[in-house]
Structure formats: structure tokens, C-alpha cells
Amino acid sequence: MVQENVLNQEENDRFEYHKNYADLHLLVEGHEYSSYGSRVKDEAVAFDEASDIGFVHCHEQYPLLLGYHNFAVFFPGEPHQPNGYAGMEDKVRKYLFKIFNRLVSWEEQAMAQKGSGLIKAAFDTDNFSHAFLVRKSWILSL
């Protein structure tokens, strides 16, 4: 889906997570911080099965600066906080791909559930083939 989002400029300590889908955020206009949360502290908002989203507080966060043609992937169970203001534009345009978890191996799901995550960095789409080779086939098949 294509999203045009106004970026959050206020402090926010809630991280979203999903059980059934991985999120792939690909920016096509603007810059944003998408933060990865680690070491879940507690639940902020109960998980909603119908919309596949819940919110948690985390002990640690790792901001990822995303810009034109960069992307980040957050696997099922990985807390993340998209749409953060990066000190540049007020809005971004991006593609959000929801990847059903049956396309993600059980090993990747187990690692995400443990909070270790597999991808905690943004990749440049022109240079991702080496770092992202294992998952390239199912991402490109969307």
C-alpha cells in the first residue's frame, strides 16, 4: 500500500508489533526515523487480533534513518516505531508491504520472538543484494 504520512514530532514511547505480518517500509519521498525496539518492558495497548497490531514499551530503541529508496524490514514480533520526524520534511511518501508470516521461516519468527531480530538496519536498495540475499527472493516476489 502507498502511504503519505505526516511525521510524528512528539516523543512517543510506544512501539507497535504484529504477529501475522512482517512490515517492509520503502521510502520514495522524504526522510523519517523508524526505530527498532528491544527488550520489551510492558504492554502499552493490548494486541488486537483482527487488525494484527499491539503496542509495547521497550527498554532500548535503535533509530534507523530512512530516506529516498531506503527500506527497513520488521519481522513478526519485532517492536518498531515508524514515522518519526528526522528534522527535514514534515511528510513522507512510502510503500508499506505487509508480508504474511508464512513467507517468513520458523527460524526467523523464533529469533524475532526472542527479541534478537534479524534486520536492525536500513539498507540502500541499490546495494542490498549482498546483505539481504537470503530474503531477496520472497521480497521481490510480492
Question: Secondary-structure map with pairings?
Answer:
Elements: E1 2-6, E2 15-17, E3 21-29, E4 32-48, E5 53-66, E6 70-74, E7 80-84, E8 91-100, H1 106-113, E9 123-124, H2 133-140
Antiparallel strand pairs: 1-8, 2-5, 3-6, 3-8, 4-5, 4-7, 6-9
Largest beta-sheet characterization:
5 strands, antiparallel
Question: Which percent range fits the helix content?
Answer: 10-25%
Q: Using the alpha-carbon principal axes, give the shape.
A: globular
Strand content: over 45%
Number of H/I helices: 2
Q: Whole-number radius of gyration?
A: 14 Å
Major beta sheet, strand line-up: 1-8-3-6-9
What is the structural class?
mainly beta
Please write the string of helix (H) and strand (E) elements: EEEEEEEEHEH
| Count of distinct strands | 9
Average pLDDT for all residues: 79
Low-confidence stretches: 115-142
What is the terminal-to-terminal distance? 12 Å
